[in-house]
Input
Amino acid sequence: MHLMKRTFSILLLILVPVLLATLAMFIGPSGEGGWESVLEWIRWKTGSPADAGTHPELTGLILWEIRFPRIMLAFLTGGALSLAGVAMQAIFRNPLASPYILGMSSGAAFGAALALAWGFMPPQASAFLFAALATFLCYLIAVRKKKLAVLHLVLGGIIVSGIFTALLTLVQYLSDPFKLQTIVHWTMGNLHNANNTKLWTSLIPAGIGVAGILIFRWRLNLLSLGDQEARSSGMNVPVQRGLIILLATLATSGAIAVSGIIGFIDLIVPHMVRMVTGADHRKLAPVSFVAGGCLLLVIDTLSRILGSYEIPAGVITMLIGAPVFIFILKRSKIVWGT
Amino acid sequence: MAVFSILLFTACFRSHPGETDSPGDAIVVEDFRGETLSFSQPPRRIVCLIESALSALYMLGADSLIAGVPQSVYKADLYPWYARLDVRISKREMPAPGNWDFVSLESLAAIKPELVIIWAEQTDVIENIERLGIPVYAVMLHSFEDVHKEIRDLGTITGREERARELLAFTEAQKKTFRRQISGEDRQRAYFMWSQGVLETSGSRSTVEELFQLAGLENVVKNQDEHLVINKETLLSLDPDLIIMWYNEKLDPADVMTEPGFSQMKAIRSKRVYELPSVFACDFWTLKYLNAARMVAQWAYPEAYSQNDSLLSESHLMDSLYQFHLKR
Amino acid sequence: MGDVKAIQLDKLSFSYHREELLKEVSAGLSPGSLNFLLGRNGCGKSTLLRLISGELKPTSGDIRIFGRSLHTLGSIERASMIGFLPQHYPMQLPLTVEEVVLTGRYRFSRLNPSKEDFRATLAVLEKLELLHLRTRNLGELSGGEQQMVMIARLLAQEPRILLMDEPLLHLDLSNQVRLAALLKTLGKEGMTILAVVHDPGFAMAVGSNILGLSNGQVEPIRQDDPDSLLTSVLSRIYKTEIDIHRMASGIPFVSVNLGAL
Output
């Protein structure tokens, strides 16, 4: 019975995203990617000649060069951000924590802006580097006498965010309106510029981060009890916490470097999932990954098809996320420790 | 610059002798990134995501090749003009898959374009379009010469070299009438104000500078930047004779004249603040810079230009460039 | 081997902000002994426990656990010998009781709990009569219940030594009795226990060995000393006048001499 339930859950975790992604493959703003065209493309792929007036080759391009990378990237980004949120909340023992509190989003935004304004390297690479740099700076600020003070880490995050936000404003100020618009667009989410190369660029760091957190997910239970408790049970807390933060940094910066700043997913998905699965990270972590991925996939698909002008996914997540978060704030316990 | 000239030269040279359509004599053009584009025949479906370049296509009479336009074309200040130029736009049937800051790849691909014209700065989008196997002509405009190159290139690509030469010859002729008229007079000093804010202006390496030179004015801003934000005190000390505003939805010349602290400036005291009245008709990323220059010149030197009728009026100029009389 | 101490403190000193909390403390606790540590607030009791748990490093001196120097032990090896119950502050953590107790098994399974870990967890919950709380969230429990769960977590770790900082905190009288009985049973099973308590009466009634900490020094308090002597020792340790009364059964009851106020 227990085994059956478990198998069922795992199946659900795989089937739901696969189904959603498949469905999303059939939906798009153009006439060349509707149900009929996709079916026509499948017929054409399986050897039937193309009907007159259809363009299976174009449909193939739209499916595999435009929709596929975008769908995968949306899923990966939503999943990675949610999972990093879960990890950060466990480590900081605070359900309000998110990877962004370490200044990652402002670091990434500044990095991307710098590259977009002066083009010394691809914005993705620059965003990744500066997101990682921001976290590293937080760490430098927070380490005192070789020990990591969690409160200092959070304060460090505020300071580092402040610095990078100021630098971002400076870059925007110095940029012409042309580049300024591109920068603003990037900071609102950039999924519409997905392609297969970017998918891979993102998949490598984000994948390592995600896999790592999933492997160590049970340890998050122990870490969320508190430092002394974890230490007493035989955990090397500074090393373990450093490792988890590193993995969360990889997951987050890998995702936002390509997808732009997607807010609130990392904060609300763990909360919503926790209401269903409870706080046991053995369940919470994988379910949050899948749920976050599915949520962003759905949001991005909506933004693809609603209207001729796409609303950046980051804007939608913010708009939906804020009220959901207020709802959660009203009904759940917010502080775990004392 | 040298390389640039050579490229221009080769582009001209290649398109010049033949005009035969043999397959070996492909259309070859180098865009503003330095990428070489070649076609065996003019692309039949062009998606142009730059409004100024779209104007160039209509000036060239390449209407039938246009398959997609930037979204801004449907905005209130541009729509009436383009509706006159193209029935598909007036009926709002022409697909608009994006503009200069955003492109829906899928909508773009669905148009099945054989060429996409887009700003060179949009590197992310360009990469994605090229991945789809669609050639991209990327544009970057820093000078009137760039505007001319764009006309020449687009003329070559669309097989309308003759019309391109005609447009450029017309432009040169028009420019000469300017130079004759302002010589001998004391040069007026002007400040250019972009719509983003009163302190946003352009320096000496910009189309604004060229516009001023054509109209016989001196730009008070000497920095080399194409776009910059200056200090309010600097502006006061530069003390321009007149202020030229780009089309501005938020501010009118009256607002600028009551701007706190500006009251002692020469331009304000003599109430010489002027706003270019139309994004379309004054666009100096197109040959319409002639129109903007005419307005600026008339504001700067009202006496000299009042008795002058060799300059074309706006409607005449528009008709010469777009050949409105041929449409419909 | 018979005289190897479970915990051996050897001229242990510890200073914090130039204040010398412990001055060359030497003491030995035998395996299976039930020890209570008494002392005034801030005299260094918690510090001593944190030193023995390895959380703090001594300024000088050495701590040996079953004959081995504490600092030579790795994290996991140390966890197999010492279980430390820090002073508990009630938490809102939404983990279930079973999941919390299961984390005590970290030293056995590093990535995922095994069947054996689940079995051991259930056994501990049963032993502490907490089975009915198994699926409840820790955050929903009272402070006393949370304390019992944290003690269960410690036992699931199966250490040989228990260090407990104020285990009676938040416990009502019935739970205090249950804890007393549990500690005695554990002692009989060979567990060495060192616990900080604030009630000398409880310590004398339950403990086999009582230590007083004052002025940076640890001194044994002998229960078979006459009450008059005990009174003066305790009064000195707490720097307050103490009265000792005896129940009919001989169990001591310690109170402050309120008459002196």
Q: What stands out?
A: DSSP finds 14 helices and two strands in chain A. Chain A has one domain: 15-23+34-44+58-331. Residues 26 and 34 of chain A are 6 Å apart (CA to CA).
